[in-house]
Amino acid sequence: MRIMGKQAVLFDLDDTLLWDDRSVKEAFEATCQAGAEAAGVDPEQLEEAVRKEARALYESYETFPFTKMIGINPFEGLWANFREGEQEEFRKLEQLAPGYRKEAWTRGLRALGVDNEELGAKLAEQFPAERRKRPFVYDETFRVLDALKGKYKLLLLTNGSPDLQREKLAGVPELTPYFDHIIISGEYGEGKPAASIFRHAMERLGIEPDHGIMVGDKLTTDILGANTVGMTSVWVNRHGAVRNDEIIPSHEIAHLEELLLLLEQ
């Protein structure tokens, strides 16, 4: 795939520019440590149990097909308020969220033989606070954006709930000014890998598919979506994940800065 003639770079947000995995992991560790001390259980087992219960609970709600389409994961649900977004599903999520948080933590404790609703409620509120304290960004993010700004149009294409994605961006205020456009799936009404959101992004940028390059860490959303509309796709595979041949990126990089070398070709 030729890289020449590119006018725009489209970036995914979570685990591409923002180190969301680390933020969530450390928030779980801090909260589970508090839970473990209060209940005399193993913190790692508690995290595993809560993650499992949260996922099962999340998938049981009538909102699940919508959250899947928009691209909002169960652990985002553990700290999101869902106050924005026009669809009625967001209003349902807003009502569900406090109970979901409390239930996930209470069930996680119960799975380890601790029946303590009060502690579950306390941990359910500690987790969002811990996550909000940790807006991690990769070291190389700003170096890469500095190198691209002014040479290319830059667009952020992120799946998620509008208020939560905006809050993540507010946690790293230096990030937003780099982008000419920011598109959040929950505002648009459909998420990656839908061809429509990629076409919407191209319209905003005023480009054809072969003028753009999509950079992201998820094969099933970022790469599949770009491939579907005929845009060059760059898979950021920081952890050496092994892929099958169902979704094949145009390029694979292990580090974001490799993108600069690609674009210079």
How does this structure look, described?
The relative contact order is 0.17. The chain has a 6-stranded parallel beta sheet. The protein is α/β, with parallel strands linked by helices. Helices cover 53% and strands 10% of the residues. Helix 8 links the parallel strand 2 and strand 3. It folds into 2 domains: 8-19 and 137-264, Rossmann fold; 21-132, no CATH class.
- By CATH, the topology of the largest domain is Rossmann fold
Shape: elongated
What CATH architecture label of the largest domain applies? 3-Layer(aba) Sandwich
Question: Measured on Cα atoms, how large is the radius of gyration?
Answer: 19 Å
Q: What's the end-to-end separation, in Å?
A: 11 Å
Based on helices, strands and strand pairing, what is the structural class?
alpha/beta
Trace the largest sheet across and list its strands: 3-2-1-4-5-6
Mean pLDDT: 97
**Count of separate structural domains:** 2
What's the total count of β strands?
6
**Sequence of secondary-structure elements:** EHHHHHHHEHEHHEHEEH
The fraction of residues in strands falls at 5-15%
The low-pLDDT segments are none
Please bin the fraction of helical residues.
40-55%
Largest sheet: 6 strands, parallel
CATH class categorisation of the largest domain: Alpha Beta
SS summary, helix count:
12
User: What is the H level of CATH, i.e. the homologous superfamily of the largest domain?
Assistant: HAD superfamily/HAD-like
TL;DR?
53% of the residues lie in helices and 10% in strands. The chain is an alpha/beta fold and 265 residues long.
